Inverse folding.
């Protein structure tokens, strides 16, 4: 029959384990601090996630991955008004997720 029992290890100091864990924790913290990006980068990343939280913007990005489109084409494809598409594109452009290229009198 098996029984659970604790055995005292000779010369084992439980405080030594705590010291080792503390040192490992300090090393991990220092490594994280060294690699930490500026707060501005996290702010921009959060803004990007917020922008992509809108299904219309995700649709627009998907459509643009299929090929270059002008605002009118996007509006027609996604059954949105041109002002709505323009508004979404402005948000995506400000986050540098899309680029605008002027072609004659229209933007694409």
């Amino acid at each position: 029959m098996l029984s659970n029992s604790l055995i005292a290890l000779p010369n084992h100091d439980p405080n030594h384990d705590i010291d080792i864990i503390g040192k490992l924790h300090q090393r991990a913290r220092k490594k994280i601090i060294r690699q930490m990006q500026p707060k501005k980068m996290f702010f921009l990343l959060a803004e990007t996630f917020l922008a992509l939280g809108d299904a219309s913007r995700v649709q627009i990005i998907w459509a643009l991955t299929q090929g270059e489109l002008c605002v009118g084409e996007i509006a027609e494809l996604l059954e949105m008004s041109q002002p709505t598409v323009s508004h979404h594109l402005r948000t995506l452009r400000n986050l540098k997720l899309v680029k605008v290229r002027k072609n004659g009198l229209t933007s694409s």
In short: The mean pLDDT is 85. Helices lie at 14-35, 39-52, 55-66, 71-78, 82-94. Residues 39-107 form a domain with the Arc Repressor Mutant, subunit A fold (CATH 1.10.10.10). The chain is about 65% helix and 5% strand.
